[in-house]
Amino acid sequence: MKARTTQNFDELYAGAPRDIQRAFDRKLILLLQNLRHPSLRAKEYDEARDIWQARVTGAWRFYFSIEQETYILHSITPHPK
To answer: Which distant-in-sequence residues (6+ apart) come within 8 Å of 21 by Cβ?
Structure first.
């Protein structure tokens, strides 16, 4: 698998704190190796739009879709808890 970002993701990533960026970079490696890695806690978030959610940290999530052999990264945001 490979990953591709959207402009929205790039803007949100650039505005995220540096520690969140580093945490995401580690999680992306895990995602590319195994969608079901336990620390990602990946789940289908919006079935109608085929959007998935995965954990960056306890307080941050990233959202993506899957197109053939590519993860399309849509956003990275604080979790609304």
So the answer is: 13
Amino acid at 75: S
**What DSSP assignment string belongs to 4-72?**
EE-HHHHHHHHHS-HHHHHHHHHHHHHHHH-TT-TTT--EEEETTTTEEEEESSSSEEEEEEEETTEEE
Residue 50 vs residues 7, 56, 66, 74: alpha-carbon distances, Å: 19, 19, 8, 12
Domain boundaries, the chain: 2-78
Fold (CATH) for 2-78? YaeB-like fold (3.30.2310)
Q: Please give the average per-residue pLDDT across 71-81, as a whole number.
A: 93
pTM above 0.70, yes or no: yes
